[in-house]
């Protein structure tokens, strides 16, 4: 019996999730795929902790449904600029001072998809 060729559109290692919106974010949950326009990037600062030591910058972004804080780590600070459209994949959402904050965490990634 002959094997049919695979018709998979994506590689096995990368799973495509549907786009999430800011209104769907919940604290202490995974952010699978979120696209934001960067509105503001605050000055970088250096942090020292058990899990991470290095530069960190707070920023904020929005989509059609709302605003959310975003934490940029290390080289992400130089990669992202105000006005960029970014995609956060496999990130993490937390709550700080009553507001939602998104981060790529240890395993996520951020990609600039439009300038």
Description:
- It contains 1 helix and 7 strands; from the N terminus they run E-E-E-E-H-E-E-E.
- The protein is mostly beta strands and 115 residues long.
- It has a 5-stranded mixed barrel with strand order 1-3-4-6-5.
- The chain is globular and about 35 Å long.
- The model has no long low-confidence stretch (mean pLDDT 89).
Short description:
With 115 residues, the chain is mainly β. It has one helix at residues 76-79, and strands at 29-41, 45-48, 53-63, 66-73, 85-96, 99-103, 109-114.
Give the total of beta strands. Answer: 7
What is the overall shape? globular
**Category by helix and strand content:** mainly beta
Based on CA atoms alone, the radius of gyration comes out at 16 Å
Largest sheet: 5 strands, mixed, barrel
Number of H- or I-type helical stretches: 1
CATH superfamily of the domain at 38-114: Nucleic acid-binding proteins
Helix content: under 10%
Uncertain runs: none
Q: How much β-strand is present in the residues?
A: over 45%
Proper CATH architecture of the domain at 38-114: Beta Barrel
List the helices and strands and how they pair.
Blueprint: E1 29-41, E2 45-48, E3 53-63, E4 66-73, H1 76-79, E5 85-96, E6 99-103, E7 109-114
Parallel strand pairs: 4-6
Antiparallel strand pairs: 1-3, 1-5, 2-3, 3-4, 5-6, 5-7
List descriptors.
mainly beta, five-stranded mixed beta barrel, 3% helix
């Amino acid at each position: 019996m002959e094997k049919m060729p695979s018709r998979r559109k994506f590689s096995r290692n990368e799973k495509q999730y549907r786009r999430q919106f800011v209104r769907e974010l919940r604290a202490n949950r995974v952010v699978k795929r979120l696209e934001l326009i960067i509105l503001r990037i605050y000055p970088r600062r250096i942090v020292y902790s058990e899990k991470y030591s290095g530069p960190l910058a707070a920023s904020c972004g929005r989509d059609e449904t709302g605003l959310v804080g975003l934490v940029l780590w290390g080289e992400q600070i130089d990669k992202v600029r105000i006005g960029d459209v970014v995609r956060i994949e496999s990130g993490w959402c937390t709550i700080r001072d009553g507001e939602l904050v998104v981060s790529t965490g240890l395993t996520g990634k951020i990609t600039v998809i439009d300038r």
